[in-house]
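Sample pair:
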Amino acid sequence: THCNTLQQGEGFRATKGNPSYPDELRLQFTSQHPYMEEHVGAPYVCSFNMLSSQQPNTTELAHCIGTALTSTLRPRIPDDFTHTSYSKRVRHIFAPFL
């Protein structure tokens, strides 16, 4: 998964604006992994636009690949996936029943 990628200290490339989606889905699904793009971001996530299903934006794609090849990233766990955050959410959900 994309979280496992971060835990290994590796970057993640995400496509944006997939043209193969129908129009109504394209408005809703704007990224391959919106959570990672919005909450983790660079340098761990590098997104590029797809101009068409056969032709991605090669400038942005080349930048993402170059960044991935030259970056040395430390392993990272997104804050929402830490034990502390997870335990807090579980306590919040079950507190009314305890």
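The chain has a mean pLDDT of 75.
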